Amino acid sequence: MDRWKFKKEDFFLTGSAESAPLFYYSCSIGVILVTKALLVVINNNGVSRWFIEKRASEGLMKYWVSVSKEFVTKRFISWKEKWQKKENYLFNITNKPIKDWKEMWKEVDTLAAEFWMESYFVESLDPFAEEIDKQISEELEKVGIDKEHIHGLIATIEPTRTQKAAIDFELVLQGKMTKQEYIKKYWYYKGSWIGGEVLTEKMLGADFLPKPVPTDYLKREAEQQMLLPKLSEKTQNLIHLLQIFTLWREERKVYMQMMSVCYSTIIHEASKTEGVSYNDLIWARPEEIELLKKDNDFILKRKRQSVFLISPQYNPPKLLTEDNALEVIEGMTSKDKNKIAKGTVACKGVVQGIAKIVLKEHQFGKFQKGEILITTSTRPEFLPIMSLASAIVTDEGGLTSHAAIISRELKRPCIVGTKHATSIFEDGDLIEVDADKGVVKIIK
Fold first, then answer.
1. Cα distances (angstroms) measured from residue 118 to each of 2, 113, 247, 249, 329
2. Average pLDDT of 334-360?
3. CA distance 266 to 104
4. What are phi and psi of 295, to 5 degrees?
5. How does DSSP classify residue 82?
6. pLDDT tens across 143-177, in order?
7. 24 closest CA partner among 46, 41, 7, 45
8. Which of 8, 120, 135 is nearest to 56 (CA)?
């Protein structure tokens, strides 16, 4: 079994969420096509974690921090224009009869792989968040600018798509936008790494999204225009890269949500046509349907504990279950025994309160206002409980992650990239989140 032992220090945690293979299988193929690296995907009781070799992120990071502001902006605009043209195609999948679900499944697989091959690199700065933070902070201090300005400098001067959804929903509540107009614009909003469905009027209750936090983008832009010229061209380029990657990640999330809704639509049709459970199908591949009809034992093993090894070497991906999977899981997720987690500061502040671990959407109901949200990573569906939290802590992510973006808008202390806060702390722990120093600990 030593064959499946990997050195944890050779990998970065590049993602974690409640998910099933249907929604990430082809995305992962796209990632390894561009990185040529090994991706280890761990499934443990419905929560998936993606670990990629450090060398992949290092190479991408070095490339992107070396290019000009103009190049970054141009690439983002051309990427966005290309994928905007795909929106009608994706929407039509969810609204037209599916004649051949297997063929449609393969089509979306191909699109998902291409999509992630073209956009995975926006995560490449995450593993180096502390170094980047330090680099910018040191230059701010050198030129006499208070380090407190760092998050204002890297913040975007326009709302992200997720923020626009909240802003527009407020217009719906005010009667300035119809529900039909909202649905046409945000039909994908219920999509996530575990599936989703097309938005309906019935879903748009008053509590659909929390009230957006007012942000003075003009004031933020004026502050940046005043401070940025004092910094070196290298640092200005780095800050611009962080701003563009923030917008890029949120745009990318939109298309991920669209594809997840499409996958769900296709699998519901497959379930109806083949007489196989939807919840089993999302753990299978198209070529396994006939086997699944006979016995779903292999699916049950995947759901409990499994590992996918995805790389140019493993084509198709190698699947491990039972003892082999457990060996990888224990090696990749082992943690320090002390009750302390350290990560990157996304929004400063110090808060003490009750910890609440939320890994899956059906756990949202247990979260109470003022508690400290500890999760693997946040996504648009987390927005309602993020607005209730007194602080936010995540296992993965960096300065441009969803948790970092939203926490800065909400002005909630936030630490990202702790790697394993969700397995260190337990519901009910009294903890301190020191988002000035990037430390989370049990209060003795």
1. 35, 9, 15, 12, 29
2. 90
3. 7
4. -160, 130
5. H
6. 999 988 999 999 999 999 989 999 999 999 999 99
7. 41
8. 120
